[in-house]
Specification:
It is built from two helices and 14 strands. It has helices at 2-19, 254-259; strands at residues 31-32, 37-38, 43-45, 60-64, 76-82, 87-94, 102-104, 110-112, 125-132, 148-152, 158-162, 185-190, 196-205, 213-221. The N and C termini lie far apart (71 Å).
Length: 263
């Protein structure tokens, strides 16, 4: 009797394994389940564009593909800004909004949006780094790097040093954090005249609805605004198909639904 029970249990377990899809590649952001292939990392040198991002040059809108984080290969973009001896502010807003079921009333208080529920499938995460171009460890247009380096101390021991100038506070107010998915990031720093600075956009995650991350970017003179939120920059949401109606899956403009009041 015990032997029969064991055989039955093994048969059931075998059927369960056959009926389940144990292919974990679908969990990777760079895997295309329809084609059954992996996408190559998307590294772009924005300095090669006809109109690259520039100081006080207005809002730049672009797109990036998925990273291969498991292999340590990041998609992303870089561009160069010339130092002028003044302070500059860099702001980047990744697609789309942290909570698209929220909107702002006339007093800028968040209230529940009656037209939508939160839809995280169109959200992505982009990390911002800035430093002297000479300290950049990557290759524009080929490999996304950072500003980590090493130096020998007075005893000849190698020490690590982070030369990233884009210092941001995390949720607890500690310097060195980055924002989460679909949340804007920003930092300001004083430039040296005649010195080039490299701005790095590093893709941490892409929206799972189309595997493409849209972003809005600005470089401004002076300090960053005291308050930076989803409404500071526009253009990071995917344009809706013509004739689309507002819904939790595809809205005419999720930024308008978030930023503009319906009251």
């Amino acid at each position: 009797m015990f032997r029969l029970i064991c055989v039955a249990a093994l048969v059931c377990a075998g059927l369960w394994l056959v009926s389940c899809n144990l292919d974990t590649r679908a969990l990777l952001q760079d895997f295309d389940p329809e084609a059954g292939t992996f996408e190559t990392v998307d590294v772009r040198n924005l300095d090669e564009r006809d109109q690259p991002p520039s100081i006080d040059g207005g809002t730049y809108v672009g797109t990036l593909g998925p990273s291969n984080i498991g292999a340590g290969l990041y998609s992303g973009a870089t561009f160069t800004i010339p130092g002028n001896g003044e302070r500059v502010c860099v702001i980047v807003d990744p697609q789309s909004v942290w909570r698209d079921d929220l909107q702002l009333d006339s007093s800028n208080n968040e209230i529940a949006n009656p037209f939508m529920t939160d839809f995280p499938h169109d959200d992505g995460d982009l990390d911002l780094l800035v430093g002297l171009a000479s300290y950049y460890t990557g290759t524009p247009g080929e490999v996304i790097g950072d500003f980590l380096g090493n130096f020998p101390d007075s005893n000849g021991v190698e020490r690590a040093i982070d030369l990233n100038l884009c210092l941001q506070e995390d949720y607890h107010g500690q310097v060195g954090g980055t924002a989460g998915r679909s949340t804007p990031e920003a930092c300001s720093f004083v430039t040296l005249p005649g010195v080039d600075y490299r701005v790095v956009l590093q893709v941490y995650s892409v929206p799972i609805d189309d595997n493409e991350l849209r972003y809005a970017l600005e470089v401004r003179s002076g300090e960053c605004p005291v308050t930076i939120d989803e409404c500071t920059l526009r253009g990071d949401a995917d344009p809706a198909p013509e004739g689309a109606l507002p819904s939790e899956f595809d809205a005419q403009d999720v930024e308008e639904l978030y930023c503009d009041s319906y009251l």
